[in-house]
TrEMBL record, chain A:
Topology class, membrane: Multi-pass membrane protein
Domain of life, per lineage: Bacteria
Subcellular location per the Swiss-Prot or TrEMBL entry: Cell membrane
Originating organism: Deinococcus roseus
Protein name as catalogued: ABC transporter permease
Pfam assignment, any one: BPD_transp_2
Automatic annotation (TrEMBL), chain B:
Record flagged with keyword Membrane: no
Domain called Periplasmic binding protein: residue spans: 30-290
Family to which this protein belongs: Belongs to the bacterial solute-binding protein 2 family.
Principal subcellular localisation of the protein: other
Residues making up the signal peptide according to the UniProt record: 1-23
Keywords annotated in UniProt: Signal
Protein name: Ribose ABC transporter substrate-binding protein
Subcellular location: Cell envelope
PANTHER family in UniProt: D-ALLOSE-BINDING PERIPLASMIC PROTEIN-RELATED
Protein source organism: Deinococcus roseus
Length: 332, 319
């Protein structure tokens, strides 16, 4: 990632546990207690690792969204982008496997296709928003519709699936393997969170993103190359979606119109629960991670109990989101 | 001027219809309005509609079939208007996006003399239609329960993965439960949860079921898309006590599995997107030859097993 050349002093290395993180953490702990009381199987490592693995997809996307939202923008296309990239990857792999066989190089080329698609989309978003001077909301609302429609067209309204089971078997450990008992998606999720945390808190780029989000005009006066930074923010978001895609595809080996539906809202909810202001300016990666885990855990707790009418499941999610946001407001 | 033309058009259409209702109408224009391919099943509907269009136009020279796909209820209502005023259709085969919002727009066409066949999703006002062709949702639940009960030898514990909270889903699940209760009272439903007719939710819900219940004898996933996720979750959890997973709707990959003698997918119950083809054929026959069309046609849900699977396998279809 290139950074604008402005002299900076390194951020203070002092570790500070932000009070804002208590809200979601408290919510999560409460929820876990409720879950464990209602069903003893909740606290098994099997269940916990299921929940964390599931979270990793939306979680990684939400980490990218944290940067976008801190910078004062929004990306509504991430769910559709995940669907499109999954489709592009599966099509590429199905195409290559004929000539190259079910091998690691085939797989890598398929991943490369997704990475290239992600990079191009991120760049396109960034340029439309900065050079094109179109609201991020509008740009990504438009591309969301485009991506999903293109995927549906590619799949002819059906589902794109791996045609070669050997290749699917070769790829599936990326989602299912668990070295030392920890599934790979969880490891990737934590790694992305750590790197993103470092970028946000310890690099000039991270500070520029926060400066732009809190006051774009002032940031410009401070000779920050606002447009450039913003473009990289959207590229970073698309890169996060690409990582999520690479973890998503081996799970079911297919992509259809319902792939990634609603991921954008879940990612944004995770970011907001995590204490990042929708108005931009500042935010916490740690909070986003907790927020994402919290959202998945609600669904899990409801699934492993039959406490309420299942029609009301989404309502519980809504209530918890509001409660957590309220806790944060009080802690401020 | 435009209005005059419109009135003239409507009048002519009306005259044509009334004059030809008992005679042949070889030059009929049939409009087919269906939801766009937004998931596997509707993808299948679009495939079958286009395929049948070609078939019918070949079979009845002079007949014109116009297929329109709509992205939502509002879009479909607009298209219905266009079909009448621009395409001058005299016959309509429509699979409404949603029942409520499309009842009035369809009734408007019907009142102007268009022969209307409604497919699958019924209208709230039945006087707006001349014929109704639908899949058998309660039948699907019943056939599934019977197969499941027989395969389990009348006893065991099962889990149920439902679709999206809708009337269709309720009809299926209610019939399923009623049949089990009446015929196989020793089969216990451990729990049922919504998996929204999609693979990801099928995977998640099944993972949680597997965490919660130490022994599951069989799964009724109701839909093949959900069943894809269910099978993956079982595979991941290495749970081998589950004897089989019954999906539904007849997705080609699942019919192939049944054909090939898969261990876990031993059967499937149809709820075929090709019902649009049946509706189009029945309507075209009625319009062109002047024969009367049945007021209601229910396309039964059929059990697919290894013996008959090849009759239901269409490798070209997207579903």
């Amino acid at each position: 990632m290139s950074q604008p050349e402005v002299k900076t002093t390194p951020a203070s290395p002092r570790f500070r546990f932000d009070v804002l993180s208590y809200g979601p953490l408290l919510g999560l702990i409460l929820l876990c207690i409720v879950g464990a009381v209602l069903n003893p199987d909740f606290a098994t490592w099997g269940n916990i690792s299921n929940v964390l693995t599931r979270t990793s997809l939306v979680g990684i996307i939400a980490i990218g969204a944290t940067f976008v939202i801190i910078s004062g923008g929004i990306d509504l296309s991430v769910g559709s982008l995940l669907a499109l990239q999954s489709g592009v990857m599966i099509l590429t792999l199905n195409h290559l496997v004929g000539s190259m066989g079910a091998s690691v190089p085939t797989l890598l080329l398929g991943l490369l296709a997704a990475v290239v698609a992600g990079f191009v989309v991120g760049l396109l978003h960034g340029l439309l928003i900065t050079r094109g001077r179109i609201e991020a909301f509008i740009v990504t609302l438009g591309t969301a519709a485009i991506f999903r429609a293109v995927l549906t067209e590619l799949a002819q309204g059906g589902t794109l699936t791996f045609q070669n089971s050997k290749l699917a078997d070769l790829y599936s450990p990326v989602y299912y393997a668990a070295p030392l008992g920890i599934p790979i998606p969880i490891v990737v999720f934590l790694a992305v969170a750590l790197i993103a945390g470092l970028i946000l808190n310890r690099t000039p780029f991270g500070r520029y993103v926060q400066a732009i989000g809190s006051n774009e005009q002032v940031a410009r006066y401070a000779t920050i190359r606002v447009d450039q930074v913003k473009v990289w923010v959207y590229v970073f978001q698309a890169l996060c979606v690409t990582i999520a895609t690479i973890l998503y595809v081996p799970r079911l080996g297919s992509a259809s119109n319902s792939t990634g539906l609603g991921f954008e809202l879940e990612a944004i909810a995770a970011v907001i629960i995590g204490g990042t202001s929708l108005r931009g300016g500042n935010g916490k990666i740690f909070g986003t991670v907790i927020g994402a885990i919290l959202l998945t855990t609600i669904g899990n707790v409801l699934n492993i109990t039959s406490l309420i009418s299942e029609y009301l499941n989404p309502a519980v999610q809504g209530v918890v989101i509001i409660i957590v946001a309220f806790l944060q407001r009080n802690r401020k | 001027m435009k209005k005059a033309l419109l009135t003239a058009g409507i009048l002519t259409t009306g005259l044509l219809i009334s004059g030809l209702s008992f005679a042949q109408n070889k030059n009929a224009v049939i409009g087919v309005s269906i939801p766009a391919a937004d998931h596997g099943w509707t993808g299948g509907v679009v495939y079958w509609a286009n395929r049948t269009k070609t078939e019918l136009e070949k079979q009845y020279p002079g007949l014109k079939v116009i297929v329109k796909t709509a992205k939502d209820a509002n879009d479909q209502a607009n298209q219905l208007q266009d079909l009448l005023t621009v395409n001058k259709i005299d016959t309509l085969v429509v699979l409404p996006y949603e029942s409520g919002p499309l009842t009035r727009p369809i009734k408007q066409l019907h009142d102007k003399g268009v022969f209307v066949t409604v497919v699958d999703r019924g209208l709230t006002d039945e006087t707006a239609q001349d014929a109704y062709v639908a899949g058998d949702n309660p039948g699907m639940g019943k056939v599934s329960a019977e197969y499941l009960g027989k395969q389990l030898g009348g006893k065991g514990q099962i889990v149920v993965l439902r679709g999206i909270p809708t009337v269709i889903d309720n009809q299926r699940v209610d019939a399923f439960e009623a049949t089990l209760k009446a015929k196989y009272p020793n089969i216990k439903i451990l729990d049922k949860k919504f998996a929204n007719w999609n693979r990801d939710d099928g995977f998640k819900v099944m993972q949680d079921f597997l965490t919660r219940f130490p022994r599951i004898d069989a799964v009724w996933a109701q839909d093949d898309d959900i069943a894809v996720g269910v099978l993956k979750a079982m595979d991941q959890a290495k749970r081998t006590e589950v004897k089989f997973v019954l999906g539904g709707a007849g997705m080609k990959e699942f019919i192939k599995k049944v054909m090939d003698g898969d261990k876990l997918v031993t059967g499937d119950v149809t709820y075929a997107p090709s019902m649009i083809a049946d509706a189009m054929k029945l309507t075209a026959k009625s319009v062109v030859t002047g024969s009367k069309m049945a007021k209601t046609t229910i396309i039964p849900s059929v059990l697919i097993t290894k013996q008959n699977a090849k009759n239901y396998y269409y490798p070209d279809s997207p579903f």
